[in-house]
Amino acid sequence: MLEVILHKRLASFQLNVAFTTGQELTALFGPSGAGKSLTLRIIAGTVQPDTGRLLLDGEPLYDSAQGLNLPPQQRRLGYVPQHYALFPHLTVADNIAFGLGHAPRRVRAQRVAELLELFGMQGFERRIPRQLSGGQQQRVALARALAVQPRLLLLDEPFAALDGGLRETLRQELAQVYAHWGITVLLVTHDLADVYALGQQVLVYDGGQVIQQGTREEVFFRPSSRRVAEFVHTRNILPAVVERVEADTLWLRWQGYALAAPRQPLAPGTSVYLCIRPTQVLIVRPERLTARRRDNLLYGDIVREIMHAETHTLYLRLDSSPAAHDLEITLPSYVYHRLGLDTQKRLMAELPRQALHVIPRQDDAVAPATPPPDAPFTRLTPEAEKPYS
Amino acid sequence: MSQEVQRHSLGRRRTGHGTTLLLAAPVLCVVAFVTLPLLAIFLKVLPQAGLWETLREPLVTQALRLSLVTSLSSLCLAVLFGTPVAYLLARHHFRGARVVETLLDLPMVLPPTVAGIALLMAFGRRGLLGPWLQVAGLQISFSTTAVVLAQSFVCWPFYIRAAQAGFRSVDPELERVAHTLGVSSWRTFLRVTVPLAFPTLLSGGVMAWARALGEFGATIMFAGNLQGRTQTMPLAIYLALESDLPAALALSTLLILVSASVLLCMRVFLRRGVLTTYA
After folding, report:
1. Residues A242, A111 share a domain
2. Which chain B residues have a beta carbon less than 8 Å from that of A85?
3. Which of B180, B190, B276 to mutate to test the interface with A (most CBs of A within 10 A)?
4. What part of A 357-386 touches B (C-beta under 8 Å)?
5. What is the per-residue pLDDT across B222-251, written as a single tens digit (0 to 9) for each?
6. What was the ipTM of the complex prediction?
7. Inter-chain contact A85–B177, Cβ cutoff 8 Å?
8. What CA–CA distance (Å, rounded) separates B60 from B228?
9. What is the DSSP annotation of A162-185?
10. Which residue among A27, A86, B241, B252 sits deepest, i.e. has the most Cβ atoms within 10 Å of its Cβ?
11. B53-278: which CATH architecture?
């Protein structure tokens, strides 16, 4: 278990984080410059915080109150930086064995052989990093970190330098490594796909703070603030007002519609954001309308659509709405065609009550201006992280 | 279309040729300017009878031995003191780092005679530290130690400069990763930083050594011209030029051969081993 309380002030940036993670894959997710990599470096011991405390399985690595700061050599953590930092003058085998200097030669050779096998890198022992592909370099970097049997694995943007297909392969591999080792992993990423694939726990970073911690499902489907909702590409973040609260229903008003959401203790008149992911919006065929009880039916036209490899994204404008579009809907392409949406542009959509997530709108004061939807991270100052990038 | 392309590329090739020819002239001039004087020495020396005897004169052998001992001592001192200074300057940004850097560069641009006088004024018998040195029973000026000091003064910057650039070219992230792998700072320095900076360290060392070997002005001012004690090869050549031209030529030939072979060795070594693995 890792307990982290850290404060660090830089010239144009402040890091203030506190979190605890168990034995799992934890993703530090957020825009560039949010302090994720800095957190990793502080935990690794290569950057010293101003104040705070770091406990790994109850053992303090750093404690400003006690004036304790273990050097990185004594922390026994595996740290894999963004571009792997393989030693360019050493062979693959020597890279992996680098931290095993104290061990007898035979033990060292055996450990290297084990790791080469685990990562499917047999036959590459004598190569130097320059002769390896990006994916192979990453495997060697992981093997080198794991060779010293660390208590915690710190990965900084492990897939950022790789291209799409390889990324997916290496994500799977990392998941297997994790399963094989059962080691706590902290993974820094700004890629949602990494979080989907690997983040059992997610820490959402923004501006040097953790703005939400939770399981992947919590962060994706129940973001705690508008900002998190934007980061996890909720897409439909609808400004609504609470009308009344019933036994098990929270009634909201949005665009002239009364929408039913799961009950929450909110006073009538409260401004809220209603969140629903594009894949959660259902399209209702008129002939099936009476098949079961329906919540929250909306009527509108498809004003724009984007075709992806296996899905379609539709932009729905409600009747008599002044907006360019009101809802984003994503559905599998075969459903798109079965519903005849290639010709039929008028449709009825359902917002399932259980899929609606309501965020009280108090975060507006701290939330910055809404960035453009396709580049939600552009607002942040990249120089904040620069001293360590 | 393809014809047009062909004509176009032919035209380009022709201009390329012209440029090469145009550049060939200055290249030839420079090469000739450098080789002609060296060639002249060889042409004068080779027909000379008794070259071997000249080289075995005590004037020559003593100068040669003294030059090798002092220049290598200066180089060792440069590596010993210069390496930590260079590493510090490369890795840490502290207040006054710029000032230190500029001061360390100064001997590179200072006229050697000025350096010699400055050393005399500092360590000479009537210099700044003279009284204390005298109390301690140390007589520095006009001794072999003075030769080493004079050479060190002028040659250290060459090494420090190069070493600093070499260390700076090593990604500090590599050192950090080594630390997280449990490897001490000292071992990291020896196993990561030095090997990666080695080509630069080596060429800096060779430059510094060559500068020490050729040192004349500061040595003659600060250490004098005493055969066997302070008379290094450049000084011996200067002295011999007035009395014994064949000896001067023989000494010069020797220096050229030594310098050229060191330079050649370094280039071959860098080409073969180190540079190809790193770059």
Report:
1. no
2. 171, 173-174, 176-177
3. B180
4. none
5. 888 888 888 888 998 888 888 888 888 888
6. 0.84
7. yes
8. 10
9. S-HHHHHHHHHHHHHHHHHH--EE
10. A27
11. Orthogonal Bundle (1.10)
